Amino acid sequence: MIRIGTSGWRYPEWRDGFYRGVPQRRWLGHLAEHVDTVEINSSFYHPQPRTNYLKWVAETPPGTTFSVKGPKLVTHVKRLRDAEEPLRAFFDSLALGAKQGPVIWQLPPSLRFDRAALQDFLTLLPSGRHALEPRHESFRTDAYFDLLRAHNVAHVVSDAPTFPCIEAVTADFAYVRLHGHDELYISNYDDEQLDEWADKIRGWDRDTYVYFDNTMHGAAPYNALALAQRLGTPIRSHM
């Protein structure tokens, strides 16, 4: 099972391209008519009420999966420590039902690998699929990979020019975020780059979630469709 989509959907930059002629209230539904997974980013910045999650479920067709970004209160403010209460509040707010996919925990670039702190954090996570995106070179170590494998947590394979791309598969599923290879959040992925990512994903031979985060110039949805075509995953409708 390979799911390919975009990181977020509320981008004015897409208005004259992918969303041409589509009213803003229909943006999520329009995107979900073409890709089968979307990463929710707003949950990182502010707590989202259950009503928002229920609305997003209602706006998308059956078979849609949402990945959800964990709150920055946990990752950036508390830096994974003493996180019991914010974790409880976050998971209590989720109301995605059958459309719930992995939860992704994006770490700040200044956070170095600390085995004890990460071990404590991982033990707090409820059952379900979780993925961790570190942005510091110190995570390129077997101690980190072994810890994730022990908890069946996926290391996020990220492609970006400003933080390390650490390629490791540590769970029974894989998670990829493509932020733009040359310019962060901007660069379009060309045919050769998409071919390379398709080959890597085939080689992992497991459930995989892929999100294009090169959103600022509108490349993300088109790159998602192009990668899906290479991997033979269902495309809901053609552009």
Automatic annotation (TrEMBL):
InterPro entries: DUF72, UPF0759_sf
Annotated signal sequence range: none
Superkingdom of origin: Bacteria
Gene3D superfamilies the UniProt entry points to: Protein of unknown function UPF0759
Protein name as it appears in the record: DUF72 domain-containing protein
